[in-house]
């Protein structure tokens, strides 16, 4: 458009008519109404602003604009904005005072009228008319003669020289040139109004129409664009690099999902099944078939003549390139026959008959799907075997099933335990030291021709520190330590056990010197003859055989020591124990008083307590007869937990005592509420035990009696302190203990009309004690010094019927005797029982001090430990003999009243 306007011929044409107007009328432009123009400008402007970075510099009057909605207001805005613009634009070129302001104004007005005259002349295209309107507005606000116009102004406005047609032409060109490029850019939305302003500013400085001006305009436009881009970039900060990584997994999943979605929403069809009749009627008879392909002798694919189909049936899917019809055939013979008949019917000569191909295709998808369940099954077996195998020993997968599951502890990092950490088993430590010195200095033994023991069995009750001792051996000798449990050799698959044994020993040989520790070896090492009773276990037997073979297989220089732990050394196969295999048998019993003290000392090291350590360890050891190392560790930890629960700053004696009670009797059952009658019965029951323990000469001294229900089904309990470590027990001690055990029931009988089931556990203990006296301890004159093994599995009793009857009679006699002893005592001390019971009912727990308060000092002297730690007076009593665990009220001196069943 600008080019068009600038064309001399057209300008001349317009200029002439405009010149006429210029002279004829001076106020033509004032008749112009501008809503049309403003709507145009507004539309352009709105679009132009939308392309401007919103975060960029604000337009003047931006605030106002926010509130402007009506066209009127918008028009004013633009006008204001343009006025502002020209104010600044004209500033550098204006020379106020140097020129006649009135003449200047007149010149500009005339210019405006001239431009308006151009428009009035008519014949211009709409867009050019619009442009002229814009120029009118812009020109209206020009206050001073722009640079480059001065000469023209001087000549025609000041000196009033008449303009020639060519000068009019120049004049028109000037103004058009002055604005049109800017307007053109503005209208075509290439640059914003701000940028036009800056362009015009440059132009006004360099003069109109010059090349430099034009260049700078373009530069300005480009600059403006760059600025705009820069602004956008600046706003967003550093350019954002979006990194695309190709992930094959995601790609496949995305592709599959996309395909599924696509096929769901756009179910394209590329095949359809038809019948023979349809085939004939629609295609064959019409001559549209090109070829037939028999697939797998059961289906026929119809190849159609696409062009013919497209002409005949343009809407049919068969017109698509990949679309096929199929029909099923019974057999190839019948198909061929039918086809021939069809050809004959239509009289198709042999040479033009439809060709038939035979293809055997493998339907891949169907085949893959038919294998689906098998693959799924194998996959799940594989997965689960991996999961099952992954847990232990680092072996995983079904192929690792025969691998050993032994955990290997590195002596430098994992096995930090030393002999100092194992307390209270000095003899066992001494025995095992030999293995340590063998592993450390093998030459010392080998040069003398000594064969080093191959292994040792550590046997003893649970929690006595067998594993700990084995670990300490590894820690001391500084060799790798393989730990495995006997049960880990046993699997449901045949042959796995021996294979794991082989693997374990092979591993060990690779890591010599080292120690193998097989915990719970009785799981595989049970005596083979015993197993056969009631069906043997071949797998276990072959595992055991493999261990025997492996242990034989070591040569004398192999520095592999095999230690095994068991709670049941008696059931182990003799072949395991023979020299050359587990030739050392180290028994680890429950710790003695001294041992317990040492174990407490080891575990108390980690506990924050302000108690005197010697006294604390001694007292706790005295309080915990029969405790194994693991019980002690548990007790110490429990005490710390109790203290923490009470927000105590350090663990105190009472916390330890609470912890011991909890370990012995279980948690207090505060939720268990007994009826008053039941509570009374329990109180009298416990009082009966307590009085017997107090007044019977050989009974154990009572520590505490309580009727607070605790875990393990006890409604009340009395804690006694065995006078000493019981290695031997006399008839007197046993009789007194039995009488004391019966004290609960006898007390009930004496104080109530009826008795309860609460004494059932007491009777069990009493019967077992009496039975042991008769059949094992030789304490019955009628039976004599005989020992009868109690074996549940034996079908025949190892004694005659008469002996059996005599045993029964003797057991009964002993129990009756104990019962009489108890009844006599409690009848005599009926008041004392009442006293203790009532006190128990009110206080629930009575200590030894309460007993002394109620009954006076115990008439018999207390033992050494008791005196030392529990304030009893008297001399040290002779050590009491032990009875097997089953035959006493319990080595830990507990006496519990079970819940009535
Ligand atoms: N003599 C001891 N000195 C210090 N702590 C001990 C001692 N005996 C046992 N313990 C503690 O008891 C815990 C359990 O001991 P360990 O596992 O060695 O018993 P275990 O005899 O192997 O038991 P199980 O026969 O049930 O396998 C040890 O971790 C340790 O904290």
From TrEMBL:
GO terms for biological process, alphabetical: mitochondrial protein processing; protein catabolic process; protein import into mitochondrial matrix; protein-containing complex assembly; signal peptide processing
Cofactor(s) named in the record: Zn(2+)
Keyword Protease: yes
Subcellular location: Mitochondrion membrane
InterPro entries: AAA+_ATPase, AAA_lid_3, ATP-dep_Zn_Metalloprotease, ATPase_AAA_core, ATPase_AAA_CS, FtsH, P-loop_NTPase, Pept_M41_FtsH_extracell
GO cellular component: m-AAA complex; mitochondrial inner boundary membrane
Record-annotated AAA+ ATPase domain positions: 452-592
Lipid bilayer topology: Multi-pass membrane protein
Superkingdom, natural source: Eukaryota
Catalytic activity: ATP + H2O = ADP + phosphate + H(+)
Region (Disordered): 48-77, 202-239, 863-901
TM ranges: none
Molecular function via GO: ATP binding; ATP hydrolysis activity; ATP-dependent peptidase activity; membrane protein dislocase activity; metalloendopeptidase activity; zinc ion binding
Keyword vocabulary terms for this entry: ATP-binding, Hydrolase, Membrane, Metal-binding, Metalloprotease, Mitochondrion, Nucleotide-binding, Protease, Transmembrane, Transmembrane helix, Zinc
Biased composition (Basic and acidic residues): 59-77, 225-234
One Pfam family, short name: AAA
Family membership noted in the UniProt record: In the C-terminal section; belongs to the peptidase M41 family.
HAMAP family per the UniProt record, alphabetical: FtsH
Protein's name according to its UniProt entry: Mitochondrial respiratory chain complexes assembly protein
């Amino acid at each position: 458009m600008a080019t068009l306007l600038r064309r001399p011929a057209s300008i001349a044409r317009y200029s002439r008519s405009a010149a006429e107007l210029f002279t004829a009328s001076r106020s033509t432009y004032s008749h112009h109404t501008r809503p049309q123009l403003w709507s145009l400008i507004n539309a352009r402007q709105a679009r132009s602003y939308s392309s401007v970075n919103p975060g960029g510099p604000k337009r003047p009057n931006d605030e106002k604009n926010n509130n402007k909605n009506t066209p009127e207001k918008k028009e004013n805005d633009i006008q204001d904005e343009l006025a502002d613009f020209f104010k600044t634009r004209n500033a550098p070129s204006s020379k106020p005072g140097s020129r006649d302001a009135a003449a200047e104004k007149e010149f500009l007005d005339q210019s405006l009228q001239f431009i308006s005259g151009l428009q009035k002349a008519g014949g211009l295209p709409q867009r050019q008319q619009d442009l002229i309107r814009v120029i009118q507005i812009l020109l209206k606000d020009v206050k001073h003669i722009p640079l480059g116009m001065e000469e023209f102004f001087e000549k025609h406005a000041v000196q009033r020289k008449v303009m020639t047609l060519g000068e009019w032409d120049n004049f028109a060109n000037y103004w058009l040139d002055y604005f049109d490029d800017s307007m053109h850019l503005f209208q075509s939305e290439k640059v914003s109004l701000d940028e036009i302003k800056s362009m015009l500013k440059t132009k006004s400085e360099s003069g109109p129409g010059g090349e430099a001006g034009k260049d700078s305009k373009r530069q300005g436009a480009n600059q403006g664009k760059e600025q705009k881009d820069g602004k956008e970039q600046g706003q967003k900060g550093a350019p954002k690099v979006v990194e695309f990584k190709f992930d094959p997994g995601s790609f496949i999943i995305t592709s599959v999902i996309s395909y599924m979605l696509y096929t769901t929403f756009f179910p394209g069809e590329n095949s359809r099944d038809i019948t023979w009749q349809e085939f004939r009627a629609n295609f064959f008879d019409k001559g549209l078939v090109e070829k037939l392909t028999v697939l797998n002798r059961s289906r026929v694919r119809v190849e159609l003549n696409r062009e013919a189909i497209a002409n005949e049936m343009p809407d049919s899917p068969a017109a698509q390139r990949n679309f096929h019809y199929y029909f099923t055939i019974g057999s190839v013979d019948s198909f061929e026959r039918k086809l021939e008949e069809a050809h004959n019917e239509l009289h198709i000569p042999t040479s033009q008959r439809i060709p038939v191909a035979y293809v055997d295709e493998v339907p891949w998808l169907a085949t893959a799907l038919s294998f689906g369940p098998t693959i799924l099954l194998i996959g799940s077996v594989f997965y689960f075997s991996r999961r099952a195998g992954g847990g232990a020993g680092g072996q995983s997968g079904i192929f690792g099933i025969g691998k050993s599951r032994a955990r290997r502890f590195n002596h430098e990092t994992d096995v930090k335990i030393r002999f100092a950490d194992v307390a209270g088993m000095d003899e066992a430590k001494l025995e095992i030291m030999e293995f340590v010195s063998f592993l450390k200095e093998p030459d010392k033994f080998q040069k003398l021709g000594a064969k080093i023991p191959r292994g040792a069995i550590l046997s003893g009750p649970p929690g006595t520190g067998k594993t700990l001792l084995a670990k300490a051996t590894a820690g001391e000798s500084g060799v790798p330590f393989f730990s495995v449990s006997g049960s880990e050799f046993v699997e449901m698959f045949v042959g796995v056990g021996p294979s794991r044994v082989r693997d374990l020993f092979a591993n060990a040989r690779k890591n010599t010197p080292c120690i193998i520790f097989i915990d719970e070896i009785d799981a595989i090492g049970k005596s083979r003859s015993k197993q056969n009773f009631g069906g043997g276990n071949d797998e276990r037997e072959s595992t055991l055989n493999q261990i025997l073979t492996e242990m034989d297989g070591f040569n004398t220089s192999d520095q592999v020591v095999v230690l095994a732990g068991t709670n049941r050394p008696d059931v182990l196969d003799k072949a395991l124990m023979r020299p050359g295999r587990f030739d050392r048998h180290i028994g680890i019993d429950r710790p003695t008083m001294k041992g317990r003290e040492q174990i407490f000392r080891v575990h108390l090291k980690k506990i924050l307590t302000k108690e005197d350590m010697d006294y604390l360890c001694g007292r706790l050891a005295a309080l915990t007869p029969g405790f194994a190392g693991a019980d002690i560790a548990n007790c110490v930890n429990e005490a710390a937990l109790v203290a923490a629960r009470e927000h105590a700053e350090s663990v105190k004696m009472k916390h330890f005592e609470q912890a011991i009670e909890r370990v012995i009797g279980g948690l207090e059952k505060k939720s268990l509420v007994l009826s008053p009658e039941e509570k009374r019965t329990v109180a009298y029951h416990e009082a009966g035990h307590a009085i017997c323990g107090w007044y019977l000469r050989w009974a154990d001294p009572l520590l505490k009696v309580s009727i607070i229900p605790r875990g393990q089904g006890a409604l009340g309990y009395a804690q006694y302190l065995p006078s000493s470590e019981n290695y031997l027990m006399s008839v007197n001690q046993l009789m007194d203990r039995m009488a004391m055990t019966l004290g609960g029931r006898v007390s009930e009988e004496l104080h109530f009309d009826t008795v309860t089931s609460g004494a059932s556990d007491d009777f069990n203990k009493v019967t077992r004690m009496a039975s042991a006296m008769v059949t094992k301890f030789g304490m019955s004159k009628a039976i004599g010094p005989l020992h009868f093994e109690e074996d549940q599995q034996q079908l025949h009793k190892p004694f005659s019927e008469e002996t059996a009857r005599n045993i029964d009679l003797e057991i009964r006699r002993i129990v009756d005797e104990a019962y009489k002893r108890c009844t006599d005592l409690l009848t005599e001390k009926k008041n004392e029982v009442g006293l203790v019971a009532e006190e128990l009912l009110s206080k629930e727990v009575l200590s030894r001090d309460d007993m002394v308060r109620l009954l006076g000092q115990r008439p018999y002297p207390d033992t050494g430990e008791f005196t030392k730690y529990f304030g009893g007076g008297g001399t040290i009593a002779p050590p009491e003999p032990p009875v097997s665990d089953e035959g006493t009220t319990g080595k830990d001196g507990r006496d519990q009243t079970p819940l009535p069943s």
